[in-house]
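User: ok so my PI wants both of these folded by tonight, can you help

Assistant: No problem, let's get them done. Here's the first:
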Amino acid sequence: MSTNFVQQGHTLTVAAPANVSSGDLVVVGSLIGVAAFDALSGADVEVDTVGVFTLPKTTTDVVTQGAKLYWDSGTSKLTVTAGTTSRHLVGLATAGAGNGATVVNCRLMLTGQTGPAA
């Protein structure tokens, strides 16, 4: 291991941007993760930045396996619609989720991209 190694980065500690519950998607700048436990706004919370998580999706979206998923902060749900420049690319759907489904399995990606992404 190199002398400047800090950590694997699979779990990071961040200041909760709002009150969060365990399992909530947390967005801090371009850092995206899933809360490991409940935390009040401003308190330290550990977030998992790697893995597949079941997260809320826009009910009317038809998500296909491998589709890019973006965070709509206005609805607090994932969507397949990239928007313009404000929606963070969160990850990829690991399975399909049709119209009427309220959740989707999402593999987190460390992209930091917002809006349309090729």
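One down. Here's the second:
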Amino acid sequence: MKEKILNAKNFKWIILFMCLLMFFAILEDVFEKEIIKLDILGYGLISTLISNNITPVAIVITNLGGAITLIGLTIIFLLIIKNKKISLSILLNLGISAFLNILLKNIIQRPRPDEFRLISETGYSFPSGHSMVSMAYYGYLIYLIFKFVKNKKLKTFLITILCILILSIGISRIYLGVHYTSDVIAGFVLSISYLIIYTSIIKKYIIEREEENDNKN
């Protein structure tokens, strides 16, 4: 049993390292101002889906990763979740991930693609804010669902829906022409690395202590 726990812990740090490696590999190309083949390939594939019927759907999906939606959800969680430490951890997660994204964007300063935009957007491009923050936000919800939802069918359903949502938000940014494929992938992998660290801290200082208190009571 102990060996399985150790293997699981080692595995998550390996994932963190691999994600960071991927992020910095993409970042190197961005700094060298190279036209990344991944960007051409990604937009080439996704642009084949563009139609008057799909564009409104893509806009709705992209808004699910926007500030208004995420702040609104956070306020709801603050009101309905009884465990205030958990609800505050959702708020803190949103704040940290958004701050990191803004910081990185202003350091890297990659211009957005402007040839095929379907919506107007401001600010820098790398890494994608919607992708990075959505992965961090909905990814953390996946972690909480995995930890606290007892019903296996409900747990599987909610996690599946959130995984699809995260992926769809990233695709919508490429579809709408406001991000390169590399922006989206970089946002995803960086947030996965961040989530491994954040959830490890939350587990140690909030969840395990809450479990200890419950056992005492």
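DSSP finds eight helices and no strands in the chain. Residues 2-216 form one domain. Good luck tonight!
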